[in-house]
Design goal:
Layout: H1 21-25, H2 29-39, E1 42-46, E2 52-56, H3 59-67, E3 72-73, H4 101-110, H5 115-119, H6 122-133, E4 142-143, H7 144-148, H8 151-160, H9 167-178, H10 190-215, H11 222-226, H12 238-253, H13 256-269, H14 271-279, H15 284-295, E5 300-305, E6 309-311, E7 314-316, E8 321-325, H16 326-329, H17 365-382, E9 383-388, E10 393-394, E11 403-405, E12 407-412
Parallel strand pairs: 2-8
Antiparallel strand pairs: 1-2, 3-5, 4-12, 5-8, 6-7, 9-12, 10-11
The structure holds protoporphyrin IX containing FE (HEM).
Length: 416
């Protein structure tokens, strides 16, 4: 998805198709969302197959839809690729549960993900990032987007307790779930790609749990921790562990790589911003926040209205699906001045909602922030400048905003 919108043009909101993959592969969704925020902050679309959904695009409305489970439930699925099929894991999977059950499962997991808890991972993350950047040091073309797909596995694999030999396959499977229509990941049809990848991923975690039960082995990994969680006093079933392991794998793998690629692209296009961050590494946490706002890798999440809910001057009828467009909210001029300017000194970039809002706020946010900070510290320390070495290829997905190719060359830093 192009992250810097092109010049304003006439857009007919009655005919716009927000699920058109070309809009994200080669088109300009920010130009469409700009018009939606201004003219139709509550928008309704019927797809050719009869499925329909509502959209909210303003910051305030997106926070409300994501954050208020009494009005907007997660229990019928939260990923727009599942529109029209009720989630088989409703009420079980962490992401598809409302409080109080959601709070009971999330609380013990959350303690493993706090900023303080993940800090102990910093040295190991730095080693992984250093290893990751090494091939770029020789000045040859380096496909950052392609390589970055493996970065979260390198970082979170050990934390989750997943052996290195399985990372590549799991990265491929999670990419298939996130972008089932992208030619890099599609196997047959969209439905087949989703079914195969879901089945394989849940099967992987289920096998892992069975194996642990058989061997009685214990370790400090997160998947092992899931086996000891007791929401409401009872342990999770193997199916529940498999489904939660699946959402952690998915959450970790499909977002961070695209935040890395999109932020690096923004810096290449604006060498003065690169220079500022390099001259003052104290700005790197701000660079990370602006990169999260700018890329909004999880472009949206979905909810269903629990009752008729008045929003943005209209009413979402009870039971209807509503897509909360995070990518649009993060460019809302009501909150972010000159929203299409990438500015690492933006005073309120921390109010970005790339990690969502409310009770489902991304559990991996502290880990993602740490990974991104370490990544940019090491990148800026090693390279004087970066250059685009070809056109980026955008992911064909209306759910994840990202790239499949970003060829770059890096010029090694002369002065330390
Ligand atoms: C830049 C990186 C990331 C972005 C942009 C991102 C984005 C998001 C968003 C928007 C949500 C909210 C979903 C909703 O409201 O329904 C979410 C939830 C979640 N994320 Fe992330 N995420 C990132 C990294 C991670 C990482 C590294 C992990 C795991 C290690 C992770 C695991 C999860 C899980 C398990 C949830 C569900 C939480 C719940 O339902 O309570 N994410 N993420």
């Amino acid at each position: 998805m192009r992250l810097t919108p092109g010049p304003p043009r006439d857009i007919d909101l009655d005919t716009v198709d927000l699920f058109d993959l070309d809009l994200y592969g080669t088109g300009d969704p920010h130009a469409v969302w700009d018009v939606m925020r201004a003219e139709a902050p509550l928008h309704h679309q019927v797809l050719p197959d009869g499925r329909d959904f509502w959209s909210v695009t303003r910051y305030e409305d997106v926070c409300r839809v994501l954050g208020d489970h009494r009005e907007f439930t997660s229990e019928r699925g939260t990923v727009p690729t599942h529109l029209g099929q009720d989630d088989v894991a409703a009420g079980v999977l962490l992401t598809s549960t409302d409080p109080p059950r959601h709070t009971e499962v999330r609380r013990p997991l959350g303690s493993r993900f706090t900023a303080r808890a993940v800090r102990s991972w910093e040295d190991s993350i730095r080693r992984s990032v250093t290893r990751f950047l090494e091939p770029a040091l020789d000045g040859e073309v380096f496909d950052l987007a392609e390589k970055a797909l493996l970065l979260p596995a390198i970082v979170t694999g050990p934390l989750l307790g997943i052996p290195e030999k399985d990372w590549e396959e799991l990265v491929q499977l999670t990419a298939m779930v996130a972008a089932p229509c992208d030619p890099h990941f599609q196997l047959g049809s969209e439905a087949a790609t989703l079914a195969i990848s879901h089945h394989e991923l849940v099967g992987y975690v289920t096998e892992w749990v069975k194996e642990r039960r058989r061997s009685g082995a214990e370790d400090d990994s997160l998947l092992h921790h899931l086996m000891s969680v007791r929401p409401g006093g009872a342990p999770l079933s193997d199916r529940e562990i498999a489904l939660d392991g699946y959402s952690i794998l998915l959450g970790a793998n499909v977002t961070t790589p695209h935040t890395v690629s999109g932020t690096v692209q923004a810096l290449i296009e604006r060498p003065e911003q690169y220079g500022r961050a390099q001259a003052d590494p104290g700005l790197i946490p701000d660079l990370v926040e602006e990169g999260l706002r700018w890329t909004s890798a999880a472009c949206n999440f979905m909810r269903h209205a629990a009752t008729d809910v008045p929003v943005a001057g209209g009413v979402i009828p009870a039971g209807a699906a509503v897509v909360a467009w995070i990518g649009s909210a993060n460019r809302d001029a009501a909150l972010f001045a000159a929203p299409h300017t990438f500015d690492i000194t933006r005073p309120n970039a921390k109010r970005q909602i790339a990690f969502g809002f409310g009770s489902h706020f991304c559990i991996g946010a502290p880990l993602a922030r740490l990974t991104l900070r370490v990544f940019f510290e090491e990148l800026l320390r090693r390279f004087d400048s970066l250059t685009l070495a070809g056109e980026p290829d955008h992911l064909r997905s209306y759910f994840i905003a990202g790239m499949t190719h970003l060829p770059i060359t890096a010029q090694k830093r002369r002065t330390p």
